[in-house]
Amino acid sequence: MPNLLDRRVVVVSGVGPGLGRAVCLRAARNGARVVLAARTQSRLDEVAAQVRDAGGEALAVPTDITDDAAVDNLVQAVNDEYGRVDVLVNNAFAVPSMKPLGRTDFEQITSSIDLTVLGTLRVIKAFTPGLAETAGSIVNINSMVIRHSEPRYGSYKIAKSALLAMSQSLATELGEQGIRINSVAPGYIWDDQLKWYFGQIAEKYGITADQVYEQTASKSDLKRLPEPEEIADAVMFLASDMARSVTGHTLDVNCGEYHD
Ligand SMILES: NC(=O)c1ccc[n+]([C@@H]2O[C@H](COP(=O)([O-])OP(=O)(O)OC[C@H]3O[C@@H](n4cnc5c(N)ncnc54)[C@H](OP(=O)(O)O)[C@@H]3O)[C@@H](O)[C@H]2O)c1
User: Fold this and answer.
1) Does pTM top 0.90 for this prediction?
2) One domain for residues 38 and 148
3) Could you tell me if 69 and 161 lie in one domain?
4) Within this chain, do residues 87 and 198 fall inside the same structural domain, yes or no?
5) Residue 60's closest CA among 80, 83, 43?
6) Does residue 223 surpass a pLDDT of 90?
7) H-helix segments, 176-227
8) Is the beta carbon of 66 within 6 A of some atom in ligand 1?
9) Ligand 1 centroid – CA 124 distance (Å)
10) Are residues 209 and 131 in the same domain?
11) Among 10, 19, 77, 224, whose Cα sits 20 to 30 Å from the Cα of 254?
């Protein structure tokens, strides 16, 4: 569906080598003009070059979403270049503590909330006037962690649960301006990072990486793990007019590992 986001200006905040990159490439493939924001200029340039190589249009704006001035600069850069914004995808991620909550520093939990919840809110607030003009759409990337309570995921779950609560409240608050806001909750994402991690587990337990994959995937209905492009397709759907009556919703993309 090459025209799903035809000429729409899609801002992706938190572009890294995993899902962020896949969302940018997928948006470009669907006809969007893509704005890439994260702190590392070299990675933004790399992904922007990949978007252009695929025939798309890209603007890279180095941005720290925990910084008011940096986010204001992002909005200004988008206005200067395109004069409009249609879609905002909030994807930023930092590796969580992965310790039991009783042994997790409060500072770690605070910084996770600061990035995931307040960082996302900062970007949403800054783009709200522009999104109101285009009756735009926001997609917040959440996680399967909101569906389980496994040990050591507590800090991550606190941040992502608060992100979900915020997304639902904002759906109500921004709805009358015509802005939709939805969440995508990926399960495992079968990308280079996870491939490396499964290699480490395989070495530790003296089994093959394929066996680690099979054991993990066996918990899902489809007996496989979703790939970055498959998560990105769910984002495209929610961002596009195909989901024009959908707001406040969470779309799980986990091959059926957990059901809502
Ligand atoms: N990977 C998984 O298995 C998985 C599973 C379920 C859900 N998710 C969710 O999917 C999303 C993407 O995860 P991913 O691992 O694929 O990430 P990614 O797209 O590879 O990278 C995310 C990027 O966020 C950027 N970021 C971090 N702090 C930032 C800040 N203060 N300001 C601006 N950008 C910032 C980082 O780039 P800079 O350091 O350059 O700023 C990082 O590279 C996350 O929301 C994550 O919670 C991931």
Assistant:
1) yes
2) yes
3) yes
4) no
5) 43
6) yes
7) 192-205, 209-217
8) yes
9) 17
10) no
11) 10
Ligand 1 within 6 A of 93 CB? yes
| C-alpha torsion sign, points 100, 102, 107, 110 | positive
> Which domain range does residue 194 map to?
190-225
Tokens for 103, please give them.
């042994």
Task: Report pLDDT for 260.
Answer: 82
- Is 1 a domain residue? no
pLDDT value, residue 2: 61
The count of domains in the chain is 2
Instruction: Give Cα separations from 12 to 172, 176, 232 (angstroms).
Output: 22, 24, 12
Provide long-range contacts, Cβ within 8 A and 24+ apart, for 71-79. 71/122, 71/123, 71/126, 72/126, 74/11, 74/13, 74/35, 74/37, 74/123, 74/126, 75/126, 75/127, 75/130, 77/35, 78/9, 78/11, 78/35, 78/127, 78/130, 79/130
Q: Would you say residue 138 lies in a domain?
A: yes
Q: How far out from the chain centre does Cα 91 lie?
A: 3
Q: Are residues 147 and 122 in the same domain?
A: yes
Specify if 180 maps to a domain.
yes
- With the most atoms of ligand 1 within 8 angstroms of its CB, the residue from 12, 13, 19, 184 to mutate is 19
Which residues are within 8 A (CB) of 182 and not within 5 positions of it... i.e. 6 or more apart? 137, 138, 139, 140, 167, 171, 238, 243, 246, 247, 248, 249, 250, 251
Same domain, 218 and 126: no
CATH number (domain holding residue 77): 3.40.50.720
* Domain shared by 200 and 231, yes or no: no
Question: 146: exposed, middle or buried (C-beta count within 10 Å: 0-12, 13-18, 19+)?
Answer: buried
For residues 125 and 241, membership in a common domain is answered with yes
Summary mean pLDDT of the chain? 97
